[in-house]
Each structure stands twice: as C-alpha cells, then as structure tokens.
Amino acid sequence: MGFSEQIKFLSKLIQYGPVYGSEGQLKTAKAIENQLNEFGWDRVWLQKFKADDLSSIHEYIPVSNLSSNYIKDANKEKLNVIAIADSGKPGPTLILNGHYDVEPIIDSSDWIESWNSGLIKNGKIWGRGASDMLGGLTSQIYIASEFARQKKKWKGKIIFTAVTDEEIGGNGTLSALLFMRSKGLINDSENTYCLIAEPSNQVIANETLGFMHMIIKVSGLARHIAGATRYDNALYSAIELINEFDKVIEEITKMHGTPKNDMIYNFGVIKGGVDAATPIDSISLEATVFYPSNIEYEKLKRFIIDQIQKKNIRLSIRFSDFYFNGQRSPSNSLSRALIHTTPNKGIVMGKFNSPCDARLFDAFGIKNVITYGPGSLAQAHTVNEFIKIENIEEYNTHIAGALKLLLKE
Questions:
Q1: Domain range summary for the chain, segments of one domain joined by +
Q2: Is the pLDDT of residue 68 over 90?
Q3: Is the pTM of the predicted complex or chain greater than 0.85?
Q4: Which terminus of the chain has a lower count of CB atoms within 10 Å, N or C?
C-alpha cells in the first residue's frame, strides 16, 4: 500500500478515461471497488442509480439543461463506490468525497501524449483527470485505507465516496447522500465532517461558489449589406452586451462588499449568422456565472435582468434550471486539524474558486465541509493536464496527520 503503488493506480485510472457515458467509467468504478475490498474496508458498496431515481429531489440537476450532448446518456445507469471503516468506538464521522468522472475531451489533437496516457514523466502524471480529481481521489483511498486497517488506533468512523457526474452538476453525490441516509450511515450531527479532495491550489477552502447558467439572444436585422447600419448586425449589439455585462458584475460586487475577482463569468458558446454578406439577425450567447456564497441566486438573477434590460439592446434572457448557491462552513474541528498539521506555510484557509458538491452536503445537514486537495484548478480541464507527484506526496502527509488529530483516541 505504498506511495509508488498509489501513483501506479492513479495512472491506471487515467488510462481508463472515465468521461461521461463511457465504458471507462464502469472500469474505473470497478477498479476502485476492488482496491477498497483488497485494502480491508468493513463494507464496500457499488451503488447504482439513474437520473429518474433523483428527478423528484429538490437538489437534482437536469443535465440536459446544461447541454444537449448529455441527453442520450441522461438516464443511463451510473455507479458510485461507497465504503465504510468503523472503529467501533464513539467519535466523529468523517466523509471523504471525490469524483472519478472527468471533463469530456473536445479535441484530442493538441495533446502531446494521448489524453488518457497516464504517463509518469518528469515528476508529473499526465492525462485528463490527473488534477481534477483522480489525484486527490487516490490519495483519499490510500491514506484512509491505512486507517481502515488499524481501527484500534482511532475512534469514530470513516466513509469514503467515489462518485460520478460531478462534472455535470453533482447528481452522483446527491445519490450517494440519499444512499448513506437510507443505510443510517450519516446524520446532521455537529460531529460529522466532510473533506472533498478537489484541486484547491494549496487552499483549505471553507467556501465554494454558486453556479448560474443563462442563454441570451440578441436581435439584429437581416437586410442587404449595402443598406445596413452597424446595429442591424446583432454582432455589434452582442459586443456591447458583453462590455455592459462586465459593468453589471462590478456593480453587483460593490453592492455586496465582494472583491470583483470573486465573481467569475464566461461566455462560452456563441451561435449566429448564415451568410458573410448579410448582417446577423440573431446571435445566441450561452454564459455561466460563478458567484460567492453571500449572494443569492434569485437576487442575482433579478439584478442582471433589471440592469441589462435598461440598455438599448434588443435581447431576451433565459435562465436554465441548472443553478445552485454557494456554500460556506463555520470553523470546525476538521479545518482546525488541517491548519494545525499543515506541513507547508504556503497552505492557507480561503475560498475554492469554483462550484462543487459541498453545497449538497450542506443541504443534507452536514455543515462542516472542507474542500482541499492536491493539484491546481488552473490544470483542470486543460489540454495536457497534469499533476505534480510531489504535490500528491505532500498532500498525503498532511491528510494523514489531520486525520490522526481529528479521530484521535
């Protein structure tokens, strides 16, 4: 169960290529299940679920609202892996959460090596999911498994969850939470903690961001180019909209006393135009907004609508059902254990600059949630994604020390 074996296991998971709807997800879940059984956890479940099982739950995210690319496999059977190690002595419950699904590959031609090579070279491991977040997931498996084998040395219980569908809204964690509740494994006790091993750039994060998704349609006028004005072309109105949107975000952050860089937005899909000699009569812009936990979705939505509609731009805005607020946890024994045992002065408390599944644990009454894992968000979803092996090793040392302190006799 040494570190070199962990690195080999991480490489193997990357090679499976567990993207949405693929056979690689099945192989990855089975490999994790087998490894946990081999390491001697008390009980390991390969938990199956479908979207239809969750659609009546308030926190469910209809993935088809994010992209039509996900419709085909939306109700395909999915797998989570859940394991428990119980010391048999009263104490804290620690949930270790990570996702094994990885961001889909749009174009593999720019990768130096194959996107799922799992190549170990120059002190790094390369491939989709190396940083986000198979690296953190394998650390949880190997460190927690040492505790599973030595239950006389600590108190409480450890629950490990390897979930799918995090990259498309978090329905895997939602299903896992429902399963754990049905088995009586969790409650909303103040002595329950969760550690999510997302790549956090050496930040022990007690806050995660909210998520908003919208489609804005900007109108122009299709007419002969010889008689057209600049604003007959919807493109110029779209450019004006994007410039105005930046001002709207700045105004929102001022109102809430939030630094501007705590609000992140992106126009990622733009469609429109059929003829280079004709002004574009309609442009569709698809955008997402990440926003801090002190801003509520409905208020943010209303403010954006009010401010944008004040501008002299012909447009319509549609907000999808794919949204959720951010989450913030109070100072707790887990965060204090992590701070007390940090091996690196560069590791600090702060904010995770992305949405993640923390808000689902909060919705189930588990308020003590920390997001902290090896690697960098800057590497997540990138071409030639990698994680440094030294980052994983340092993280292992840190987590082992923090768990000993949290679960000590």
A1: 3-208+327-406, 210-319
A2: no
A3: yes
A4: C
